Amino acid sequence: xxxxxxxxxxxxxxxxxxxxxxxxxxxxxxxxxxxxxxxxxxxxxxxxxxxxxxxxxxxxxxxxxxxxxxxxxxxxxxxxxxxxxxxxxxxxxxxxxxxxxxxxxxxxxxxxxxxxxxxxxxxxxxxxxxxxxxxxxxxxxxxxxxxxxxxxxxxxxxxxxxxxxxxxxxxxxxxxxxxxxxxxxxxxxxxxxxxxxxxxxxxxxxxxxxxxxxxxxxxxxxxxxxxxxxxxxxxxxxxxxxxxxxxxxxxxxxxxxxxxxxxxxx
Amino acid sequence: xxxxxxxxxxxxxxxxxxxxxxxxxxxxxxxxxxxxxxxxxxxxxxxxxxxxxxxxxxxxxxxxxxxxxxxxxxxxxxxxxxxxxxxxxxxxxxxxxxxxxxxxxxxxxxxxxxxxxxxxxxxxxxxxxxxxxxxxxxxxxxxxxxxxxxxxxxxxxxxxxxxxxxxxxxxxxxxxxxxxxxxxxxxxxxxxxxxxxxxxxxxxxxxxxxxxxxxxxxxxxxxxxxxxxxxxxxxxxxxxxxxxxxxxxxxxxxxxxxxxxxxxxxxxxxxxxxxxxxxxxxxxxxxxxxxxxxxxxxxxxxxxxxxxxxxxxxxxxxxxxxxxxxxxxxxxxxxxxxxxxxxxxxxxxxxxxxxxxxxxxxxxxxxxxxxxxxxxxxxxxxxxxxxxxxxxxxxxxxxxxxxxxxxxxxxxxxxxxxxxxxxxxxxxxxxxxxxxxxxxxxxxxxxxxxxxxxxxxxxxxxxxxxxxxxxxxxxxxxxxxxxxxxxxxxxxxxxxxxxxxxxxxxxxxxxxxxxxxxxxxxxxxxxxxxxxxxxxxxxxxxxxxxxxxxxxxxxxxxxxxxxxxxxxxxxxxxxxxxxxxxxxxxxxxxxxxxxxxxxxxxxxxxxxxxxxxxxxxxxxxxxxxxxxxxxxxxxxxxxxxxxxxxxxxxxxxxxxxxxxxxxxxxxxxxxxxxxxxxxxxxxxxxxxxxxxxxxxxxxxxxxxxxxxxxxxxxxxxxxxxxxxxxxxxxxxxxxxxxxxxxxxxxxxxxxxxxxxxxxxxxxxxxxxxxxxxxxxxxxxxxxxxxxxxxxxxxxxxxxxxxxxxxxxxxxxxxxxxxxxxxxxxxxxxx
Lengths: 266, 830
Known about the structure:
The complex is a heterodimer of chains A (266) and B (830). By secondary structure, chain A is of the alpha/beta class. Chain A contains seven helices and twelve strands. In chain A, helix 6 links the parallel strand 9 and strand 10. In chain A, helix 3 packs parallel to helix 5, helix 4 packs across helix 5 and helix 5 packs parallel to helix 6. Chain B has a nine-stranded mixed beta sheet with strand order 14-15-13-16-12-11-17-10-18, with helices on both faces. A six-stranded mixed barrel of chain B has the order 2-3-7-4-6-5. Chains A and B meet through helix 2 and helix 3 of A and helix 16, helix 26 and helix 30 of B.
């Protein structure tokens, strides 16, 4: 049984604080609290405006957020509330209008395009709602892609290992159009993890899947976060996803409205 | 009205959204139409010059009386004595070179008292009086230095001729007889008959009155002969000019195919909402028509401009190979303009029929349930290969057929079948090569090469059409390159055999296929008397008409040619034995173009009107000749002089004694001919002259090929642009997955490079086959020349490299677009 609770006074405005919150003996935090408090992702007073018809339209406003290794965070909120914008900033795909985004302690604003590319290659993995597999590459080639783009030559073993983790080793040589939606998303997850990123960003990863398949995908992500200490930030509308998350960040109109941390029963 | 709205929303809006790609496709059509139009206009202007320079001064005569070597004066007397009111206009025709400008213009000697528009009067008595055509730009009273045969004299312009007098120069008949050394013979008598009898009856009356060897033909026959002679040349040029349009057709097909694939879902939705198949089909045909009409209109303007350049090149070729020609005015009539516009539109619409049909066959369920990429055509390659093999077999069968009405129709059919076979075989080739090279490319060039090769293989239809278009253009370029290179090598070898003399002489002034100015006989005598000279081969040429086509009758010193020359014969006979049979007998040898044109072979008999009688000439053999396409009948000089006793040679080949240095011999000859306007050329200079003319002749074919290749490369640029637009999500994704901007650029450039490579491979293979067709079928049937196959390796490598580099460069702009894609936008479009 999970339950949600409102967190105490945050150290960064309304954002998450990792303090030794009192918990009931029968409950443990989803992430160990004994580790050093090193964030893998930190958004420090981040705002983002888009220019539409010459006018700035705020997409994010003064967001403070910290994500720690192995943490499974769900971003929830209505469409257009800024979830995807936050993911793009977190993934070093976009620059904030103001404030700073730190990925593994590095400010994305301090990097040029090549630096941002290097950061993504080493630290970040992406999963999308519509899988985004390249139709012209086989399953294993899709998984190899991030490693190859980073200039690695020996990539096959790593890709197959990731496919094994998502139970798709047997389908390695198939083409994407020969897979089901769930299988495609598992390939996408394997691809996102193949370079062992510290941060996995998922944008509605179950949005195109039926609920049963979606649950399987969420379980898989949850397992990855736990086993590989990969921080996962997932934009979602799925209730199942919020139930599985360590932290739920509720957004509204570009603001972080609420951050809840799940306390799970052993 | 609903259809217009449908068209506007389904077709026009997307076209406006991608203006660069729309413009590139339209430009491909425009260039195709422009080239076709330019060649048509240039051909008309070049061929029309006979009429403008000579015919305009012929008035409204009904008949022209001619004879080989000139019409004897007695013929004029006989006509004058006929009891009819005939209007007789005797004339001498030759050429003069305007010194300074070096323009060669027709020189006419006419009875000035009969010519009202010369305004001649007392100055007629002056042998140095001339009247000039309006286009020459002289004014009354100007002094003009003219080179006529081997003499240069100053003349006074007594007046300017009337409208449409072209570039002719007119002088009095008696003066022309003197300066052209005609010994009283006329070149032509124009006859105007009364309208009391039918023309056929008049022709019989005139023929009865004239001595043997003099012929009567309806006025304008010579022009018609020239036109017939030029027909094959113009036909081949016209076909070459259509290549760019054919390449453009491939690109229209590609553009419309891409449109259909891209808008498959839209089509499905429209069909679900009630659009008929016909409406969908018409929408895409309309898109193609837009390209055709838009491109055609631009092509009209461009073609008119290009014609200005083309007419000079075409006229130079016509002058070198066929007949003296000064380009006439370029006349873009509304009929020609309409035809060009319709051609462009028709090619565009026809090439879009298949994709438009496919669009109309889309069912709503299918369109909306299947992704675009899934729809990429996965054709049965074996079936296509089988069809390609059948077409290739058809091409072989067509290549074995003879010419139709002098035109290599089946040769062209074979070429079209080969191109179609190649187009069908290309998908299999692309699939095979990409599959085979994928792993190797990945190892050698990394992930960018892998993505590029997989993208090409994944869009088989698009890739195949692009490779098809580019390879067709490359194939034509390679084929023409191989043909011209082979021809050039053949001519070089031929010149090695044919040109054995040390020094050659001919009257000064530009040479021409139908111009045979003469030198004074004493020039030969002076040279023969030189101690450095071993032998002088005097050659005299006359323009004749044989079976309604112009030809050249020549007489040379057979004994000298037999002693020194190694002129190769088709039969393989020893030249010495053939030449030994020429003197003292009515034996001739004929050139290969003449033999092919008139279906003459060794052992045949030719009947020629010569010296007042019809002479039967026995053909001993056929010799290889590449000097012009009119064709030669060659006899011994003694035989020629027996029938046409004018000893003035047209040119001379001088053989120096052994041990005499070329420079010394040449200086002695120049000294001997001092004061005469005679060109003294060394063997080497003559060869260089000849090969320069050859290169100039084929310059236009290279230009046409270059345009076709340019059109194809524009198509590649447009297609790569479309590809980038279609795959923007993929490029965005790659950025998410860690691709640097340079990596995306490299993917596009790799794709362009692979397209270029595939097209080069396919183009070279197809080009080799087409070159065999060109050399052994089309050229042989059109012009009658035997060309030995030769690989012009350097030219081919150079041309293919340029095309390859240009293809890669065509990817630069699309690559820039790809790197500028906002990954967030494109990924979240989903």
